[in-house]
Amino acid sequence: MAAEPERWTIAEVASYLGAASTGSARKTLSRWGVKAVARQPGRAGASLYDAEQIRAARSSAPGQGARTDRATEE
Hints:
Layout: E1 7-8, H1 10-17, H2 22-32, E2 38-39, E3 47-50, H3 51-60
Antiparallel strand pairs: 1-3, 2-3
Helix pairs in contact: 1-2
């Protein structure tokens, strides 16, 4: 039987990303195209995000201050 994938709440995502707030973390995930994969049980259940998707998106994101508008010449 396959193991359950690791899922994070937005507070855990914000902590991992070093974001100042959960709103900043949500905006970052939106820019990266990462969507919630589930919700916690209950009426006010929080959205849950796939931890592996977040790690992959962060590793492929350009660093702070990267000039993505310029083509590199090789």
